Amino acid sequence: MENMEKVTWRIWESPGIGRSLLIGGLLFYVPILNFLLLGYYGRWARRLILREGMDLPEWSEGRKILEELVRVIVPVVVWLAIPFALAGLLGWAISGLFHLLYLDIFAATVSWLPVALVALIAPPCLVASLIRLYRNNSIRESIDVHGVLHFTINRLRRCLFPMLQFYGILAVGWPLIGFAAFLATLPLLAQLILVMRPKDSGLQSPVF
Q1: How far is CA 35 from CA 51, 58, 92, 96, in A?
Q2: Which superkingdom, per the lineage (predicted)?
């Protein structure tokens, strides 16, 4: 946990974090252009996975960010968009069933457990997918459901603290969710990459 906190503060104290936060936070609110955030996060994850250092990407690297967006869009759809959509539909159906049974309290709580479960598992799955994508340069391996799930489940316990920190920052910063999401996502990616490859000494040094 102490190492996780050090990673977070190292990122938040990085040169240029203020400018990156301002641009990233504002982009969050702009439809269509906010997809550039996926490219930015992908470029950040690529640097960490390939041990290229912890320097934050520059927003001036527009072409490289666009290229990274194209590269990560498929894993993002497979491991975030589709699971959340299916969990939301399932939660809606269960909620409707509870309403029919006049169990409104369960409709507002228990029925949304599938969404909570996906919220816990999907980000580590996406990071596992990106690790396979950048290490093996293969989209096919990044969307291999069995391989990614097996890789993630074996390391899921180590991902709990980064996930709790991520959602905690979002909760505290909800009034300025765009900026909170940017501040929370950078350390989340770094921490998940660190804990999901703990035996890779090259990943821990000199990057972490």
Answers
A1: 25, 16, 27, 33
A2: Bacteria
Pairwise CA distance, residues 95 & 108, whole Å: 7
Domain containing 108 equals: 2-207
HSE-up (13 A, CA, CB side) for residue 151: 25
Instruction: Show Cβ contacts of residue 26 under 8 Å, excluding neighbours closer than 6 positions.
Output: 178
Are 13 and 56 in contact, with CB atoms under 8 Å apart?
A: no
Residue spans of alpha helices (H) in 17-159: 17-27, 36-49, 62-76, 82-100, 104-107, 113-136, 139-142, 145-153
Distance of CA 85 to the CA centre of its chain: 16
Instruction: Give the contacts of 117 (CB within 8 A, at least 6 positions apart).
Output: 87
Q: Considering its fold, how many domains does the chain have in total?
A: 1
Q: What is the pLDDT of residues 142-154, one digit of tens each?
A: 999 999 999 999 8
49 neighbors 193 (Cβ within 8 angstroms): yes
And the tokens for 8?
A: 């977070």
